[in-house]
Amino acid sequence: MSDSIARCRLLVRGIVQGVGFRPFVYRTATMLGLAGSVRNEPEGVAIEVEGPRPDIESLVESLWTSAPVMARVESVEPAWLPPAGLRGFAITASRGSTTTTLVPADVATCAACLAELRDPADRRYRYPFINCTDCGPRYTLIRSMPYDRATTTMASFVQCPACRAEYTDPVSRRFHAEPNACPVCGPHLSLLEADGRPAGVADPLVEVAMRLRSGGIVAVKGLGGFHLACDARDASAVDRLRRAKERDGKPFAVMGPDIDAIRAFARADADESALMASPARPVVLLRKATGFGLAPGVAPGNAYVGAMLPYAPLHHLLLAQGPFAALVMTSANPHDEPIASGNDEAVHRLAGIADAFLVHDRDIVTRCDDSVAAFVAGAPRLIRRSRGHVPLPIALPSGGPSVLAAGADLKNAFCVTRGNQAFLGPHVGDLGNVATAGWFEEAAAHLCGLLGVRPSAVAHDLHPDYASTRLAARLRDRLCPEAPLIAVQHHHAHALACLVEHRVSGPALALVLDGTGYGTDGTIWGGEVLRVDGATFARLAHLRPMPLPGGDRATLQPWRLAVSALHAAGAADRVPGLIAGWGIDPARVEAVLGLCRSGRDLPVSSGLGRLFDAVSALCGLCPVASFDGEAAMAVEHAALDAPDAVEPYPWDPGRDAAGVPEIDPRRLVLAIADDLVAGVPAGLVCARFQATVVAAFLSTTIAVGRDSGLSRVALSGGAFQNRTLLERITEGLAAAGLTPLSPSAAPMNDGGIALGQAWAVLCKGPG
To answer: pLDDT at residue 766 above 70?
Structure first.
């Protein structure tokens, strides 16, 4: 290779602004002895370098392999030019607007900042807001683009001379770190009593740690909102927090100071540990360790616990100050409302829950809950995509006009597209109240503004009565009145969200196992095999529908589904012998049984989630649920103690009235009832039930694949959060020569629906 002098212009696209990319290029080029310059441009970062060609190629390689932790390089476009005799290397002024660049996500405190945080000789020793270009808040404090200190909530904090010197020094890792600050010029902590009055303490951290050790509940302001914190080993404090939040059975997330501390109460293998320690710092679902050690109320009746590592300097300081083996760190919100983010708002909304408030004076622009993940079937799986991941883009197979997709009603997250990129918004939650709906609208409008887009279409769920459907119309009227509203079937969207991630744009099969989704025939779907080809789909097979006595009430009263399933299986006579373990008034059970016998038109559902609910109630595990998915989780967890290899129950293949293949579970339900009457343990029954679900859907999907000639199979839907189903169906399809595809970057539950909705509209094209 020649060492002759060359010149090259490079355009680097991706998340390359506001993340220390220009100083990185400056240091690398200077080390290599290259001349030239680097600057921000509307499309990304532009670099011009001159020197020996091998050294230029080394620089290009380093752009891919050694970029700052918060950067994401998506492309490097070189243009080789004749040498021009360039001298020296400089960071030059940005050119043009940066509204087409990518907005960085919040990232956990880096090792260099942690070292300074713990160094008594450092001027930022124990400073709770330490950050640099490699770490700290980004998305949650940006008001508008371009990303500059003046457009963030740091605008009111004027940097002291020492901070300003770092901020303007190209070789400093705080060069243009917009949240840069120190104890002299930056945000500060304060402690408020339960009624909002200043606590008047010398050191808020020391006082908060003392109150937590004494059984207190403290609202702690973080990056994207408040946490409600208490000592995770204090059963009384945990139970009091559960009562105050009206959170009967849903697990709390906990935060431990390091991996070793978490391994004292949970099993974390190398993959799970790496996922916890990733820059996004998600809550990771881990199996509880033998002799759990934390309060039972942290995750009651659950085989797993959600654990995370500290991601903000304040967390590190608080855990060390205790010291605490683990703190409950649950979203600070009253029942089913958005997470609190403002100081006054928190005092008002959390009255009667928090004993005190650890606040600071750096405002939060965008609420952003913790992300939740699990490592399953060889890959990390996002269950809730929020802090640390939002608003990083997901690449689409091709580009098109901007689309805003409203998502689903439960686990809601919206989506905005720009070109060939999709941006899922932060986790909004269940759209069941005015406060959440208002937050949805504000967050969607804010992200559209940050991205500089005006949607050309607004997508929503096919269900006409969903809150998200109504909100889609309101957003359209607010942001783009001329844009059409386009309905997308729920499970079609689930399938497309998975296929988009794998860059599949042609026809494919999809196995969508879910709880609830409005079907094109007006019934509720959720156990479907589909043929999907962009904007079109066909239903090729499904689970036989089950009547839902009581309609929507049945989803939180699974005992109703147990009665319905027994009646459909011709086993209504078993009801009296089984209800004793359900804790339900026999008169209510008899009334529902009478409703099933009446022949009245009841809503029906082919959702696999509803069959899980029925089996959960039959086994006496969860006759009444306190949150969505609780009954199905109880089945999965009960089965963990059963042998790995169990015989499936019988089931019947059949066809519906239109001749579409269906899986008939009536013999399965009858066999389960027989086992329960015979005293077979619930755990073994649940394990055999799951084995039957795997066998039935594998057999059906493989047959459909053979008949259709399609080999790629998208696996999506909330029921695939069941590890056994995902792992065994993935293995079975691969063994049959099919190619299973499953989501990782977007949730397979309803939190990923908006991504599929947006892609369906883009595939549909104009009109």
So the answer is: no
